[in-house]
Write a structure and sequence with these properties.
The chain has helices at 3-57, 63-87, 94-105, 121-146. The chain is mainly alpha-helical and 148 residues long. Helix 1 runs antiparallel to helix 2 (63-87), helix 1 (3-57) packs antiparallel against helix 4 (121-146) and helix 3 (94-105) runs antiparallel to helix 4 (121-146). The two termini are 40 Å apart.
Length: 148
């Protein structure tokens, strides 16, 4: 083998290393972006849970303002879930989200018949349980996708 062959092999190894390093950097960047969305969804779900609990429990609440906050939180969650779904269609949290939506918005939500108070505590506990299931499934999905 001559000098040209060694130089060509050296350049080929260098090119492969650059491609590999670039690919790993892209994967890390994608992981960071998705982690940010996961954290944002968890934070929004916490805000949603707190607002919904206050809406159903606090007799001194501003119902119209809380209804708006609940709808806003749901819309933010939907947008984040759609973005995560674009990253990986196997995310599998839609059922949990639909259940949470149904729990919060069913019954007397946005109704003049709603009477806030302690009698709604079991419903509010269900919010927490469904939110936690959703977050747990979200974290499991993230771990499977990025902790290989």
């Amino acid at each position: 083998m001559g000098t040209c062959e060694f130089a060509a092999i050296g350049w080929l190894i260098t090119l492969m290393a650059v491609i590999y390093t670039n690919q790993k950097a892209d994967n890390r960047e994608t992981r960071k972006e998705v982690r940010g969305k996961v954290d944002q969804l968890a934070d929004t779900l916490m805000l949603l849970n707190n607002t919904a609990t206050e809406y159903y429990m606090d007799k001194n609440r501003s119902s119209s303002m809380q209804e708006i906050k609940i709808h806003e939180s749901f819309n933010i969650c939907i947008r984040i879930i759609e973005n995560l779904y674009l990253a990986d269609k196997s995310i599998g949290i839609q059922e949990n989200f639909d259940n949470l939506f149904e729990l919060i918005t069913s019954g007397d939500f946005e109704s003049k018949n709603l009477i806030p108070g302690e009698h709604n505590k079991d419903l509010c506990k269900d919010f927490v349980l469904e939110k936690e299931k959703l977050i747990r499934n979200l974290e499991q999905w993230f771990s499977k996708k990025f902790q290989k």
